[in-house]
Amino acid sequence: TKLTHVATLETKSTCCYCGVGCGVIIESDGKQVTGVRGDPDHPANFGKLCSKGSNLHLSAKPLLQQQVRALYPELRSDRTQTRQRINWESCLDSMADQFATTIKEHGPDSVGFYISGQLLTEDYYVFNKLAKGLIGTNNIDSNSRLCMSSAVAGYKQTLGSDAPPCSYEDIDHTDLLFIAGSNTAFAHPILYRRIERARENNPHLKMIVVDPRRTDTARDADLHLAILPGTDVALFHGLLHLCLWEDYLNHDFIAEHTEGFAEFKKTVRDFTPAKVAQICGIKEQDLHLAAQWFGQAKAVLSLYCQGLNQSASGTAKNAALINLHLATGQIGKPGAGPFSLTGQPNAMGGREVGGMANLLSGHRDLNKPEHRAEVAALWGIDEVPAQPGKTAVELFEAVRLGEIKLLWIVCTNPAQSMPDQHLIREALLKAELVIVQEAYASTATVPYADILLPASTWSEKSGTVTNSERRISRVNGAISAPGEARHDWEIACQFAQKLALKLNKKSPDFSYAKPEEIWNEHRASTRRRDLDITGLSYDILQKQGPQQWPFPEGANQGKARLYEDHQFATSNGRARFINVAYSPTIEKTNPHYPFALNTGRLRDQWHGMSRTGTVAQLFAHAAEPVIEMAAQDMERRFIKDGDLVEVSNGRGMQRFIASASDSLQTGQTFVAMHWGEEFVSGETDQNRIGLGVNTLSNPAIDPDSKQPELKHSAIKITKAECP
Ligand code: SF4
């Protein structure tokens, strides 16, 4: 923080929205945030900010803070009562009592934690240590399960490590951008500015976009492959089939640096252009053109996101795309590689510290005894439990079934974001104790809280985050948190110390004085791991700016690109072709439910809008939730633009305003995921029009990544009578 001549304090920090991870400069008077601008020195954005980032300061206005923030701990003794304000000590004592009693009576797996990719790395680290190290349960998962776990599984299966191999600067060196399942223009706007600039500078740079919708990104493409929902694996196999046929393969690379190609080749032989065109609903000539561009480009950079990940075959989609890169040798060189974009600001940091049900600190795996032993030694405990934890959808199901009795939700809003909302809400009512740790008192999950713990948020808290290109940036607080809100890591540590006394067992250390001490412990856990950051420090991050991992001891900078030596992170150093099968979406449209429902993001909103929803300017782009439909489908059903329609399937019903869209093919629909519980006028049951689009979305999960199929459900649509 530095003092400028007009007595404005300037604090360098990081935007708290998407995984691009832009650097910001917070302007404040020490008490209030007065402005925000892009940090010209930050390599993710070089001073630019998108509409969300440049309005960050408006969400931190003091009056708004008072209206929407959780300010004091609150507790209710039973559910017939409203929560009452309580002091922190009594609140944490009560929580520790309830945890200790439940753990003693029902065992450590009777409690669970559901945390968030919005947390800082240090917060994530201590919650993971609390669950796995002190309590002895792996029942801790993150909302990152909903956004990137298929990318993690895809990388690990093929390349041996959860490490995106590319950098943003690869956009400047590529000849072909292959964007699959990502509306980058909306979801990662500053990265998209970089793409636009690269295309201006290099007229030969081509862009293929794979997306069922004609999004803003797809409209800019040289070739848009508008595949039918869920057919990505067939498309990628079809492209590889043509690369084989036209001999676009890099035979030396395959022979020297990979394994499993011979087996995989047999699978893709079946994916003839005619068959793929029919499965995907695209023209054969477009498939040929895409294969030619992919096969002949000197450098191909694939960018992909939720369109591949949020699927019951998300891991297969990731692996099939990486197979294409391996077969053509498009990895480990400038401008090339499979580059998954993370949705949340610190989904990557959560992965690094193992803050998920199947992971451990330093990119270790829970299912490996040697990794559990290493983490137990780091934490000074006897063992880390081997029993796998419940992943997001499984966790709430276990709560609903009464197996998990106490649930602690941190910085996330499952009563809006999880699929099949009725089951989630049933689970929240069934739990014996729901603790919600939140900065915002306005989320759909807060009414279910028996205990509300007020947390600090952006502009108030300090630590680190890691963006999509493995770059670690400092987050710095510029002002104090309002009311009695505390930092997430502090709450976890204070609770852990109380619980350890009540459990009367050997506890790992939770006596951290500041986030840097937690980060240093995390840093030590990465020694000789793929993400080794033992050469990095808060001091270096502060003085030299954000750095990419790995950054081992002795290094003076991080690595922009992985696998340049073609040594992969597998046991024999070879990348693996994964012989994935094509599986259609779990639900098929049928005469009863004839429409495919796709969900996604708008340019100016973020997640459940707890922050962006407080900024009036951000509603100029889209003011209300609508269901987008093809005009022909509306005409056939006598639905006019602006009509209220009922959208339903076996999981529930939701009312939306219908909106004609030229971005959709017939039979397809789209709803933004930002709006939750909506009322037409006044909050009465009669006026409730639904709980948001996740009333309808499918909780089916990918067998490897356990990520749910949020991108596809079958629905029917009828005109509604106004309530
Ligand atoms: Fe923030 Fe993402 Fe926009 Fe950058 S692109 S300013 S990180 S929301």
From TrEMBL:
The 4Fe-4S Mo/W bis-MGD-type domain sits at 8-64
User: Which superkingdom, per the lineage?
Assistant: Bacteria
The prosthetic group or cofactor this protein requires is: [4Fe-4S] cluster; Mo-bis(molybdopterin guanine dinucleotide)
Q: Which controlled-vocabulary keywords does the entry list?
A: 4Fe-4S, Iron, Iron-sulfur, Metal-binding, Molybdenum, Nitrate assimilation, Oxidoreductase
- Family per similarity comment: Belongs to the prokaryotic molybdopterin-containing oxidoreductase family. NasA/NapA/NarB subfamily.
The molecule here is called Molybdopterin-dependent oxidoreductase
Q: Which organism is it from?
A: Undibacterium danionis
